[in-house]
Amino acid sequence: MALAPALSLGLASLVLLLADSIDPDSTNTGLLAGISGIGSLLSFGFAGWFITAGTGIADSTGVALFNNQLVVDQMALFFMAIVGSVTTLVVLASYDYIAGHDYQAEFFSLVLLSATGMSLLSAANSLATAFIALELVSLPSYALVAFLKHNKGSVEAGLKYFLIGAVSSAILAYGISLVYAATGVLRFDGVATAISSGTVQTIVDGSIQAQSGDPAVPMAILGVGILMIIGGVAFKTASVPFHFWAPEAYEGAPAPISAFLSSASKAAGFVLAFRVFAVAFPIGDLLAAGGAINWVMAFQILAIATMFVGNFAAATQETVKRMLAYSSVGHAGYVLIGLAAVSGSGEGLSLSMSAGMSHLLVYGFMNTGAFLFIALAEYWGVGRRFEDYNGLGKEAPVACAAMTVFLFSLAGLPIGGGFFSKFYLFQATLNVSAWSLAAALIINSALSLFYYSRVVKAMWIEEPTGSRTIESYPMGLYTAVVGAAIVTVLLLPGFNRVSEIAFQAAQLL
Amino acid sequence: MWVAALLLVTLLGTGLVFLSPDRYAGKLAAAISAVPALGSIYMYWVYLTQYGGTGNALLSPADIAFGQQLPWITLGELEVSYYVGLDGISMPLLALTTVLTTLAIVSAWTPIDERQSQFYGLMLFMEVSLIGVFSALDFFLWFVFWEGVLIPMYLLIGIWGGPRRKYAAIKFFVYTNVASLIMFAGLFALVFSTDLTSLSLPAMAEAFRTASGLPTIAGMNLMTISFIMMFFGFAVKVPVFPLHTWLPDAHVEAPTPVSVMLAGVLLKMGTYALLRFNFTMLADTARQLAVPLAIIGVVSVIYGAMLALAQRDLKRIVAYSSISSMGYVILGLVAFTPYGMGGATFQMIAHGLISGLMFMCVGVIYNTTHTRMVGDMSGLADRMPWTVGIFVAAAFGYMGLPLMAGFAGEYFIFQGSFNAPTLGGAAPVLTSLAMFGIVIVAGYLLWAMQRTLFGAFSLETDYEVSPAAFHDVAPLAVLLLLVIALGVAPDLSFAMIQDSISPVLEIGGGA
């Protein structure tokens, strides 16, 4: 029952497959999108309900399932809510976007399967379940990126994404095996026990015990394993040095899928990172044990590099979608602060993690909204470059106003929740006196305003260059874009609720 | 409750105007903006009659008028609240904002003829933010409004501006945003080194005043570093030399009603923030740095006036002379005397009214002649008697004619800075130099008026020149009346300003 958010997504995808087997050539987009919409809304609703009802708070360890392989606590529910809301928006937008394409049922069921994986990943409590859930996220998304199979860009992006994804999965799996070899367990709490006690552990009847003979944990092997897990996480969250796939995949993929990958999939990568590094590799014990890797420092370097690479690359792009793709890399850098603004003994972790979580939630709306606006522009046949957006504000003022909200909020202006979540991250960096992180955050925010405002300038200030006629105003896309904009704005006065829940969730870990 | 009502009415009005058809947008916006204008005039009257002698909002929170506080957000240990309220410094600025917005909207009826509902909607949205800037007493709330002013301003210049509008808009946006970030960083360096748990401005003032044992970076106390960063951030907005280069571009390209708001209210955001943050919260540091700051002010006065002297474009003349006038404000603030600081605050109001009036006059003339170049026209006095009459009166107000608001403001400042203890021996020298600025002002304004308004009529651009419409002249007349009223009876504002300034002077042992 505690898994209802994940189950409703999985169930909806099965119902879609059933519908597809009854009528394989169905182009009844309304029915298919309806089923997926209900599934994802239910998932979001359950997650929201459980958060309000306090699941995982009463018992501070959360609801443990399947012999502790899955744990549904506040952290899991928080991310399930992000996944549910982003999936709902994406499904709503896809209703118009893929109308007229073949294989619609497959499209929606792949989206939902991937979302199921993300939801499960939020609750994973062992390296094995985490890996399986991660593959459930990844495999459908390879297919989704290449969904426009008559479009060369889409197919190319899918192939690249698949190849890099396969390599990074291999790295991650190897890292997991090394950690297992070093500690003897896969469960996060077991790994932590092994590190703090310094002896290899084993699990007997669900409880963690030292292995007979008390063999010591080989710290060097553990360090290499952790390093490889960092690599796997960097891939999934599109962080430096494994960010190369992101601009290609986001640009080639259908725009709703870009939104899905850059928001929900990134969030899923981060929940894995938060959980693994906060629970399984507590930094204080790790450093006390000696010899192993200092992952806080690694994340500090990665965060700064990712912020700068993402934002500087975004500033030099010529097409809007690619600019957003790089900006999403930059935002991964901001969220990495969640694992980087930590002192050597682990202080500040709950504050910085909750800041990262809050940013992911706000980002889930503003970034999804921005990509869905691109989907709208693609639907209208507007070109890809900045100049092609010239004067769009005259023809579609409502959608352009929403896009303006997304962009300014992404830049951190106080017009949406992005302002507070960025400030929260800033506060987390100052909390542990991480000056370089704080400076990087400020510099990159200033820079990002430059390239985001280029789109605003094109939409509102420039005169239209070519002749362009907008014939229809697709309802699903509009609802999704405007809805995301309203939530983004409401998150400015309502940010308190988000930061409270995130802080509570992070503290409970 | 009153402030919340002003904000809410204006915000709802913004939405309404965005959705209204272009034909009615201007009239509707004027009607809607009249509500906060009348409301703030009523509040002003209540304040004047009932709150006499109250203290400073930051230093004695118990004396805040129209205050309201609601919890909003908790970030870690930081409490952020919706906290608004007024005192003798913010009350006149609030009234200035709402009245000037209404007049600017009316003055836009003639020149603005495309995308009107968006134009007036943005004007109202800017008004919401400006009301918030002057009434917010919590740093976050204040910052939200502070940044909220930029977005409509950027679009207003960028969409409805002149030929180089895109360049001017982006320059304005980049300058002020970078400045905001630097200010933000400087302020938060202090916040996090003083263990603040609330970001209300009174709490910050208390904590910064009593802060001790701050770290020293590169030989400078953190307090000094933060002061300089915040001064830099606000000075861009004022603007002072050498951070002023965005201003002429923005003013010249902006449509006239927007210039009115820019010169009349937006520049005051900078000096208001300086007064609240640098000169109230960090008063000790401000006293130590008084001489260099005063030099910056005096250089702005002289340099701005010299630049104005070199211009041919009427709008550029008024734009550069704003730099000069705002320099006086800086000089008055650093004096730390009742007349100096009070006069500086009074000058904000006076300059807001007079520069708004000047820009409107130039706008009305431009609407009929389609040129602003001094050499291109002459003898307008016969064709547009009312407009020209008011223009001449406004110009004399700018030059400091007694019984006009400008005279009172500048006189107070000079009175206060001539013997300013913070400036020591430099005080008479700096004040005399600043006074010389008035001579230059008279030079360029008299020259420009003589060339354009008097003599035989001629016009390079072949347009029919006839008296301006009633709704163009009416805002000018209202503003002129206000300028004269404040000149004749400065105590209408000056008394409440002094009541709120005196606590600032008391802290740190000055008087």
Automatic annotation (TrEMBL), chain B:
One of its GO terms (cellular component) is membrane. The chain crosses the membrane at residues 29-48, 93-112, 119-137, 143-160, 172-193, 213-236, 257-277, 289-310, 317-336, 348-367, 388-414, 426-447, 468-489. InterPro entries: NADH_Q_OxRdtase_chainM/4 (IPR010227), NADH_UbQ_OxRdtase (IPR003918), ND/Mrp_TM (IPR001750). It is a multi-pass membrane protein. GO terms for biological process: ATP synthesis coupled electron transport; electron transport coupled proton transport. Its main location: membrane. The keyword Cell inner membrane does not apply. GO terms for molecular function: NADH dehydrogenase (ubiquinone) activity; NADH dehydrogenase activity; ubiquinone binding. It comes from the Archaea. The keyword Transmembrane helix applies. It is found in: Membrane. Belongs to the complex I subunit 4 family. This is NADH dehydrogenase subunit M (Ubiquinone). It comes from Haloarcula amylolytica JCM 13557.
